[in-house]
Amino acid sequence: MNLDDNKNPIDIDFLRKIIGNDLVFEKELFEIFLDNSKYNISKLDIALKSDDNNSWYMAAHALKGSSASIGAFPLSRILEIAQKSSDLEIEKKVEIFFQVKEEFKKVQEYISQRMKDNS
């Protein structure tokens, strides 16, 4: 994966404007993001299985904000759709959930590669 490609799942230039070139802080931020994201994706899954629209909305909202804060804008955009789709039928939410998981996987891979490159 070429980390300088502008089609990366994280806009590292955006993140750098916020945290500078502090690679230790970047690593800590990514670790917190990954832990919280896994938790919120789990909450989305539970909300989907229990048809709990409010929990779906809240988990999508939380994950959308944290994604945007690290520059994971493609993931954040999918989560905005998820957030606005809390009242849709389950089939549509399953499709959106699949997209969330796919994009999150790209973010995870990008972070993993970045942490290897910076160690």
Order of helical and strand elements: HHHHH
Number of helical elements: 5
Strand tally is: 0
**Taking all residues together, what is the mean pLDDT?**
93
What structural class do you assign from the helix and strand content?
Answer: mainly alpha
What is the class in the CATH system?
Mainly Alpha
Instruction: Quickly count the domains.
Output: 1
Distance between the termini: 17 Å
Radius of gyration over all CA atoms, rounded = 15 Å
Report the major sheet: none
Superfamily at the CATH H level?
A: HPT domain
CATH architecture: Up-down Bundle
Question: Which parts are unreliable, with pLDDT below 50 for 5 consecutive residues or more?
Answer: 1-5
- Percent in strands: under 5%
Could you characterize what this model shows?
This protein is mainly alpha-helical. It has one domain (12-117): HPT domain (Four Helix Bundle (Hemerythrin (Met), subunit A)). It is built from five helices and no strands. It has helices at residues 12-19, 23-50, 53-69, 73-84, 90-117. The radius of gyration is 15 Å and the shape is elongated. The chain starts with 11 loop residues before the first helix and ends with a helix.
